[in-house]
Design brief:
mainly alpha, about 0% strand, single chain, about 300 residues
Length: about 300
């Protein structure tokens, strides 16, 4: 794993007490002196391009169905809905948030690394001796993790903003990218990136092992999300209860998708505000638990 080197600016912060801003600058300096942040940023570029391409092909067959094709009733309804004002806004929002799925995973990893590198390289004792106010240190780390998560969001969003108008023009449709429905999805995507950085912080405080916490985080995100979808589909096919599909919002990755999707993210999905409420709830609990563990745990 890439190291986060100790920064002399952290020592300077102690000269004037537990100054959150100075500690945050120190945490940012630690990240900037390594390859971690730009390697993850390169990952954001690659995953955004991949996701945008996948979304482009998917929406193409909604907007321009193949000649001679005979879609079923459900496919016909989807095609008709795609050409409405609400449908076009949903497609534009989806294109402008391309890359969210793996982008959130990278934000999670960044949050993990901000915490676990202190224990991996045995600099935690020095950090907390220099600034003994543990809560302030944890908040500074959270702020730094969120800052880089916002950077990842910005890189992904800029790429999407450049490519989306070109794609929509190639599909012979006109959509205003400044309408509130679309802008709201982009801003909620920013919130999702920030929250997943906090999730990483919480996981990093819970599991000190850097490799262990990263692997656990990736497993929970990728395998957990797939498991929720598969189990939900099986239960719905067996019991045919609408609430089973709606309840999938309890999975953080599903909640993120629901939160940024205008209308229904999938049939019988929970409303957007529910996805946002679930994520914010997880963030509050994760942040509180992270601070509590860091305040009470022996750092030696």
């Amino acid at each position: 794993m890439t190291t986060l080197l100790d920064s002399p600016s952290l020592a300077k912060a102690s000269e004037s007490g537990p100054n959150l801003f100075r500690l945050m600058r120190a945490e940012v300096a630690k990240i900037r002196t390594t390859k971690t942040w730009w390697l993850l940023a390169i990952g954001i570029v690659a995953f955004t391009a991949l996701a945008f391409t996948s979304n482009a092909f998917g929406h193409h067959f909604e907007l321009q169905p193949p000649a001679g094709a005979q879609p079923g009733p459900e496919e016909q309804a989807q095609i008709a809905q795609a050409h409405t004002a609400a449908g076009l806004a949903r497609i534009a929002a989806d294109m402008l948030t391309s890359g969210q799925f793996f982008g959130l995973l990278l934000a999670l990893i960044m949050g993990i690394l901000v915490v676990t590198n202190e224990f991996f390289h045995q600099t935690a004792t020095t950090t907390f001796m220099t600034s003994p106010h543990r809560t302030t240190v944890v908040l500074a780390k959270a702020a730094a993790a969120i800052l880089f998560a916002v950077l990842f969001w910005a890189v992904s969003t800029v790429l999407d903003i450049v490519a989306t108008p070109i794609y929509l023009h190639s599909q012979h449709v006109t959509v205003s990218l400044t309408q509130w429905t679309v802008v709201q999805s982009v801003l909620l995507n920013l919130l999702a990136f920030a929250i997943w950085a906090i999730f990483g912080m919480g996981l990093g405080t819970l599991i000190r092992s850097q490799i262990g916490s990263v692997i656990t985080g990736m497993a929970l995100y990728l395998i957990g999300t797939a498991a929720v979808a598969i189990i939900g589909a099986i239960l719905y096919n067996v019991f045919h209860q609408v609430w089973i599909r709606t309840a999938q919002v309890i999975a953080p990755a599903v909640a993120s998708m629901i939160m940024i999707t205008p209308g229904e993210a999938y049939p019988h999905a929970a409303p957007q505000w529910v996805g946002g409420a679930v994520l914010i709830g997880y963030a509050i609990v994760t942040g509180f638990v992270g601070i509590l563990i860091m305040r009470r745990r022996d750092i030696s």
